[in-house]
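**Protein fold record**
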Amino acid sequence: MGIDYSAKIIQATNTFESPVWNRRIRAAFWIIGILVGGVTAYTTRYFINGDAIAYVEMGEALRTGQWLLLANLTYSPGYPLFLGIGQILLNTNPLNELQMLRIVNFFCFLAAMGSCELIMHFVTREVRRRHSNGLNPLPVRLISALCYSMFLVTSLVFIRIRLLNPDMLVLTAILTAVGIILWIREKPQGYFRYALLGSVMAAGYVLKSFFLPFSPVFLALAGISSGSFRKAVPRVAVTLIALLVLSAPLMGALSSRLGRFTYGELGAHVYATIISGKGTAIHPEVLHDSPKVSRYLFDIACTRPSGFDICYWHEGIRPDFNIRAHLRIIPGNVEEIFTQTPWLILILAWYVALWRLGGARFGPIRPPSFFLFLMAPAVCGIAFYCLVRMETRYIASFLFLGFTALTVSLRYPSAEGRARQWTVLLSAALTCFFLAITLHSMVDQSIRGLYSTPEKPSYREAFEHHTALKDFLHDKGLSPGDHVALVGEPPTYWGRMAG
């Protein structure tokens, strides 16, 4: 007797459309996220990224009272404050802090998962609203499976829990800000939500200075959500006031240190050193011109002054706006997105296929649709980094927002049949692909963390090399406070271990 595969597909499709799948998908999101995040944080606990020392030593300001550590022109103090709390609660020292502070990273990841839930709350409400209006969007459970799995890729593959940097918290801040804007879109009356948006934007600025130049995008979306220009002006003013008042202490500390107004020098530094700049660095003391030998005398105690506040050592080199140089760098940044994540083409192919099967709805433009409220920050964020410097982790949050916007825009085929079956099957296949990428990343990072190969040492073995070098320096008579010279750009965590 032959097997009726068509009937089995229809049965599986109808089962997936059962309401119980909403709870199952959400539970799976948290179970998979916690398990994969926890395993990855543990197996990669010996990993040392280039700017980890700077963030850890900035965080020590909470324990030592050296508040100058937080007035850093390159790195924002928000994430170091979380590390500082972790250092106090876990009583860390330079020999165990890398491992112990992964606990802080894990909680940052849980916060990011919470911000994803905020976005999905409004996505669910919008989909149900469209369904009640007869617009026939994709079922909530299908959208949830796709977006939750894409978020796991965004956070655990693009950003990575092993890195001691603020990107996971930046993801949290961006998604929270967009979630508040969607809340304002539903209930534009009053001023509390606008003040809350300004507070989240200020928190984002304390995490990464990028938030300040990007804030006009959020302010514009909040204004559009108000419903009219007359209502928007006072409400957006409240958002702007909250942003500036809460950001003022950090801007004041940075400006005081530099002797002129600044909200952070990283953007100017990146433009001047990557695209076009002029001038000469004024701070490093050049001991010899050829080969160039410099001495970095710093007023802040840290392991490696030249890497603790990079922008300080480039003071004197200013951006020189050059439109031709700028235009030349943009195509390379766009290409870098697909070079680092070539499988994004699969998402485009999936979207076109579902568009052909059921159609899509993007509008209206006035008032802006839910799709536009998600896609506008996504496009602006990706474009922002394409203008200067591209890494996938920088645009991870915007890729998630863009994917969610595209998923919400799709229509479900109106009649039961093969079109619906293919819609579910293709979406299930993409969800499984996202989960496979997440699990593969966990396995790959775990192997790299614990097992060496002839070509590369494991993260654990590399950490042990730092420990051995610390012991070697001690045996040679060096003690905490002594200075050493560095040739090239070697890893320097052994310097922190040795004091």
